[in-house]
Structure formats: C-alpha cells, structure tokens
Amino acid sequence: MLAIEYGVGGSGGQCGAFLSADQAGVDCILSNLPVNSPPPMAAERSKSSKKPLYSPEQRARRDATPWTMVQAVLAPLQFLVFLISLGLVAYYLTTGNGYEAATISILAKTFLLYIIMITGSIWEKVVFGEWLFVEAFFWEDVFSMLVLTLQTLYVVALLKGWWTPQQQIYIAVAAYGTYVINAAQFLWKLRIARLEGQKPDKASVSHHWAGQQS
Asked: For the chain, first and last CA: distance in Å?
C-alpha cells in the first residue's frame, strides 16, 4: 500500500501528495472545480427551457396584424357557443328531448371551429412564418386538429346516417372533451405571453442604464 498524504499549503492552495505527478495534477484540478457548477447538458437544457414564446420580431408582428384581433374575438365566441351547445347536448342525453336543438348547436360549434382554425393558421403564418405546428404552439395545434377531426366525423356521420342519433352525439361529446383541453392549453399560453410582455426588455434596460451613467 502506498502512503497518501494530502495537504493545503501556501497562499495558492497547492495540493501535495506522495503520488505520481500526473495523479497529483488530476486531483488538484478536481479539487478546485466549482461544487455547484451544472453539467454542460443540464445548462443547455436550462437555457432552452427559458426560450420566450415570441421573439421581439414575432411579438411586433403579432401586435401589428389584424388577425390577432380576429382570434381574440372568435375564441371567446366559440367558447360561448360551446357552453350553450354543451347544455343542449346534456339536456338531450338526460331527457331524450331537444335533439334538433342539440344538433344545430353542434353544427354551429363546428362551423366556428373551422373558421378559427383557418384564421388561426393565417395568424401563425403572419407571426411565425409557418401555417401550422410552429414550435411555440405545436401541441395546441395537435389538439386542435384532433378536435377538428372528431367534429368533422360527427358531421359526416350525421349526413351519412351512420350509427344512431345518440351515438352521433357521443362523438360530439368526445370532441367537446378534447376542446376543453385545447382551450386550457391556449389559456396557459396566453398567460405566459402576458407574463413575458410584462418583463422589461433587456436591451432597452441596458441602453437606459448606459444613458444614466454617461
């Protein structure tokens, strides 16, 4: 067995040991590494996780385009129609009455969904340069397409006479459940966008600070 002795001496905090020079050098380097420094991969993931929802250019295009206002009007309107339709659907499923009213409400909700999908795609093209599935709203678009597929299936089943009226209504119920998740996704992104909008721009703060120091 080799006798090993570590000591800290002098003002430079040198490491001493009865070891080979190479081993002693490695131990010195390891002992002087910062304890709390994150691994490079973890640091990179931390940076990517803080990526803003909009770049400054995208935020400027979002605020300038009239399609933003179109989305701001259509989204709550669709939600209002959804609530009315949900009540009519629930009434039909529990009482067996009001099938026509429930059907009309589902068709109205489907129509608004198509309108908001088309205008939303135009909005994404203007703001992000892509029609759909941009990185910032990828999963929102995925769930939107799922909602659109289910509601389209309902319309096709209604026109083709597939299944019973009650079974057709259940397709709409599945679409409505997916729509609730989708609406929650967009509300969450809206909250993130508002929080990011409240943060001062680093470049402008830096410029303002430099101006005060001059």
From this structure: 66
